[in-house]
């Protein structure tokens, strides 16, 4: 897998990512016996309010996380998505890659059980980073300060986890 954070983009490509989101939303809802009940385009490619990796992030809501069975994973594999095996808390993350040599993530599915604190945190963070100027400025400053070109993905994901916790101060 591509080991480093992909170069950030600031070029607003909302129309492109909105079209891509619609395409993948259709795929997710039309998988045979799909457990998917909800999708939402989240992250920097939704609004381009701050520098972001060129990855389409999709929040996927299911009634129960155990609904994502090996059969569903296989169906998602056929659609080009592969499970990322990391220590994720209360979610399943799957990614679609540019090719099977470089393995740069193009689309990432954050599969989370609906009506849980984790799901609500995702939606709240999305709302803050879309509409709250101080939260947007905080996140933009964090991203701009990174020594990004050679940062390992895992380090970057750990930093983002801290930033999302800090974002909660803007939620009041």
UniProtKB/TrEMBL annotation:
Q: Which InterPro entries match?
A: GrpB/CoaE, NT_sf
Gene3D superfamilies from the entry?
A: Beta Polymerase, domain 2
Protein name as catalogued: GrpB family protein
Organism name: Staphylococcus delphini
